[in-house]
Design a protein that fits this description.
Elements: E1 2-4, H1 7-17, E2 24-29, H2 35-47, E3 50-55, H3 75-85, E4 89-91, H4 95-98, H5 117-120, H6 124-139, E5 143-147, H7 151-163, E6 169-173, H8 193-198, H9 200-214, H10 220-232, E7 237-245, E8 260-268, E9 271-279
Parallel strand pairs: 1-4, 2-3, 2-5, 3-4, 5-6
Antiparallel strand pairs: 7-8, 8-9
The chain binds pantoate.
Amino acid sequence: MKICKTIDDMRAASRAARHVGKRFGFAPTMGALHEGHLSLVRAAKAKCDVVAVSIFVNPLQFGPNEDLAKYPRTFEHDVELLEKEGVDILFAPSPEEMYPAGAVTYVNVEGLSDKLCGKSRPGHFRGVTTVVAKLFHIVQPSFAFFGQKDAAQTAIIRRMVRDLNLPVEIVVCPIVREPDGLAMSSRNAYLSPLERKSALVLHASLKQISAEFDQGKREAAALIAAGKKAFAQEPAVRLDYLEIVHPDTLEPMHQLVGPSLVAVAAFVGNTRLIDNIMLR
Ligand code: PAF
């Protein structure tokens, strides 16, 4: 695996990868890789001839009181995992390489970026879309792979790609869960054994909503109330939001007609976790 630390190196590797008709896939990550990330890599390997992954803990998407400094960094182990998966190129720039002093240009997907996590993490999605737009320009993939776990992120990135005519196809891969249902996340590493148990309430509430949907319930307020009941039994977990929204516009739905995204975020101790399901 070729490791590129500079933008120039990455551009050169990308030029070689795109050489005549090669399908070039890319999975952007912040490292601390788990099976969820590896599922993106495997999807990219299945669809593409050459696969690049980036590891960059993007300071722009962390708020002033968030976990940038303590975000898990496991670079050596990540490199081993990516090598095992047969990844061709790893882009691992420094913050100074990505954001030279005086950088003041941002990409913002207006409207969508202040919904769901954007409401409780102001500026978060602007940080995500800015770095992803930069990564797309540097790496120049034909396909980019994202996880459905960050459902709002994928909707916002799909909109950015459409609005800015970026020549990349977005592929969204299903959520990977632990055997007991907890959605895989690098932030699960923060959880104490007790918190790890309480964290199951996110998935439990989504399953409750899904069961009531299957029984014919279509009113969003009633479904949300059913999901909130699960949280009432887990006082150690503080619900941030539980919403049912249109998967493209992220606008709240009232009556469920067509595909609907049920998205949840909650604090388990100091750790903020997210999860979601699609109801069809
Ligand atoms: O999903 C993530 O890990 C990050 O938001 C991303 C897409 C790599 C941008 O920093």
